[in-house]
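TICKET: design request
STATUS: open
ATTACHED STRUCTURE:
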């Protein structure tokens, strides 16, 4: 009875630690990145019109959304937070591999059909969800995607940080300006993921918020992540 009241163990301490640390670090990196962007809020050479979409071209983000106060301050904050962010990410990745948890998060071709069925369930086009494990197929798709997005954001960041020393990496991203664009785009994809992630938690399963804090899950759908 006492064990049931406490709930089932859901998240390891390393998962919870890296989750919340990276949430804080990512917020600071986005804010300092917007401060850096303000120094030249355009993709491409000055006066040059690029085909890549950028709804924030020449837009000055409000002061409350920026960190650093000026260009040098933004750069200092950005890299002060970047290294802990990378270290936390690597720690989480090592844990996923060593513990086998990575297999539960990885989206595979066999998850395509269950993901479509889960989407139908969320849209109320079917009454019951498809069979699932610790994470449903849509969650696995989101988590796999955000891991790939994290890698792209870090690598494109290095490409624009050291474009001469890492010229091969800058070339992979299509050159300095395109690497800068992919890095900037990653910010908005991260924000989109965070908004959807938080909304999904509160709308579909609020108990999962408690689980990522305490590590234990008490709710009606223990198989939902």
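STATUS: resolved
RESOLUTION: sequence designed for all positions
ATTACHED SEQUENCE:
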């Amino acid at each position: 009875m006492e064990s049931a009241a406490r709930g089932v163990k859901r998240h390891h301490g390393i998962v919870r630690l890296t989750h919340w640390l990276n949430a804080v670090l990512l917020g600071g990196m986005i804010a300092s990145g917007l401060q850096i962007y303000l120094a030249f809020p355009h993709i491409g050479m000055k006066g040059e019109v690029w085909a890549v979409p950028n709804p924030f071209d020449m837009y000055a983000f409000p002061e409350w959304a920026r960190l650093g106060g000026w260009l040098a301050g933004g750069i200092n904050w950005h890299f002060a937070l970047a290294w802990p962010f990378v270290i936390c990410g690597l720690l989480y990745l090592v844990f996923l591999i060593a513990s086998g948890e990575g297999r539960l998060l990885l989206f595979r071709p066999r998850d395509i059909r269950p993901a479509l069925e889960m989407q139908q369930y969320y849209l109320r086009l079917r009454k019951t969800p498809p069979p699932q494990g610790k994470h449903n197929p849509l969650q696995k798709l989101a988590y796999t995607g955000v891991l790939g997005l994290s890698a792209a954001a870090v690598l494109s960041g290095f490409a624009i940080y050291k474009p001469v020393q890492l010229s091969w990496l800058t070339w992979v991203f299509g050159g300095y300006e395109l690497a800068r664009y992919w890095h900037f785009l990653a910010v908005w994809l991260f924000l989109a993921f965070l908004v959807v992630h938080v909304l999904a938690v509160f709308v579909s399963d609020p108990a999962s918020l408690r689980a990522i804090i305490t590590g234990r899950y008490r709710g009606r759908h223990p198989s939902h992540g």
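CLOSING REMARK: The chain is about 65% helix and 0% strand. The mean pLDDT is 83.
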